[in-house]
Write a structure and sequence with these properties.
- The protein has 175 residues and is mainly alpha-helical.
- It has two domains: 22-88; 101-170, Arc Repressor Mutant, subunit A (Orthogonal Bundle), CATH 1.10.10.
- Helices cover 51% and strands 10% of the residues.
- The protein has helices at residues 22-37, 42-56, 59-64, 69-75, 101-118, 125-136, 144-154, 167-170; strands spanning 79-81, 86-88, 123-124, 155-159, 162-165.
- The strands form two sheets. A three-stranded antiparallel beta sheet has the order 3-5-4. A two-stranded antiparallel sheet has the order 1-2.
- The radius of gyration is 21 Å and the shape is elongated.
- The termini are far apart.
Length: 175
């Protein structure tokens, strides 16, 4: 006896994960743009954001909502330094998981060294490492050698185990 049941066919659709939202994408792109140099202009954030929005299919949502990037960045908690015309990561910022641990460590190192400089003292290596452990959490997957490598990029050794923010990096951090 023949059956007339229709064979099921799989329809491939472009599936968007439920956690992909425009505001999360803006936050992620801003973090990526800012982490590398310590601060980023609005245009530098746009350069990271536009390809990501187009690739994820969020362009219609962005245009329908009348995307105002500056307002969105303020809403996400990013700080704008008027004197330098750049966006910065605020202290205590919670990064998206897609941001590599080394980039997060670099941002936290800048904050730690800038805070010590604002207090008029160099930062001791042990306090820098404990600050990073608090910010990144346990099991962050970053070795002490990697931390020292990042520390050499954003800071300079003053003496013994005392570090301060390099001049170029100091200009990009606001406290």
């Amino acid at each position: 006896m023949p059956t007339f049941a229709r064979k099921s066919r799989r329809i491939h659709r472009r599936v968007r994960p439920s956690d992909v939202t425009l505001s999360r994408t803006i936050k992620l792109c801003a973090e990526q743009a800012i982490c590398d140099k310590g601060a980023a202009t609005t245009e530098e954030i746009y350069y990271v954001l536009v390809p990501r929005v187009l690739k994820s299919g969020l362009a219609t949502q962005a245009t329908a909502n009348g995307l105002d990037l500056v307002a969105a960045l303020h809403t996400q908690g990013f700080l704008f330094n008027d004197a330098r015309g750049r966006w910065e990561i605020p202290p205590g910022h919670q990064f998206e998981p897609e941001i590599p641990a080394t980039a997060r460590a670099r941002a936290y190192l800048r904050q730690c060294l800038a805070q010590a400089k604002a207090e008029g003292r160099p930062a001791q290596l042990s306090s820098v490492l404990s600050y990073l452990a608090r910010c990144l959490g346990d099991g962050n997957g970053i070795s002490e050698e990697a931390v020292l490598g990042e520390l050499r990029c954003v800071g300079r050794l003053v003496r013994d185990d005392l570090w301060e923010l390099r001049e170029a990096s100091r200009q990009l951090v606001m406290f």
